TrEMBL record:
Domain Carrier: 8-88
PROSITE patterns hit by this protein: CARRIER
Protein name from the UniProt record: Carrier domain-containing protein
Domain of life: Bacteria
Alphabetical list of Pfam families matching this protein: PP-binding
InterPro entries per the UniProt record, alphabetical: ACP-like_sf (IPR036736), PP-bd_ACP (IPR009081)
Length: 95
């Protein structure tokens, strides 16, 4: 069975894409997991969110199924990391 990237890899990729979308000069280590996606620092809107998903699929070489996002709320960076890790096929024991 093929597994996707591990959680630290997904987290780093998510943070890099979030930083790029927010046009910030930060490192992934400077973005806490509980940082709001649409807060004072990141300010990600719905269009930016969709663009980030496309960039994450490219960065992680995965396809995230649309139904993965149905009924979910994405308030923080970690919320996005959780769903991307799930969609990328992260092993269950790693979550």
């Amino acid at each position: 069975m093929t597994t996707g990237p591990d959680r630290p890899t997904v987290s780093d990729s998510v943070k890099r894409v979030v930083i790029a979308e927010s046009r910030l000069s930060l490192t992934p280590e400077e973005i806490p997991g509980d940082e709001p996606l649409n807060g004072d620092l990141l300010r990600i809107n719905s269009l930016g969110f969709v663009g980030m998903l496309v960039h994450l699929e490219d960065a992680l070489d995965v396809t995230l199924p649309d139904d993965l996002f149905v009924g979910r709320t994405f308030r923080t960076v970690d919320d996005l990391v959780d769903v991307v890790a799930e969609g990328a096929g992260e092993p269950e024991e790693a979550r």
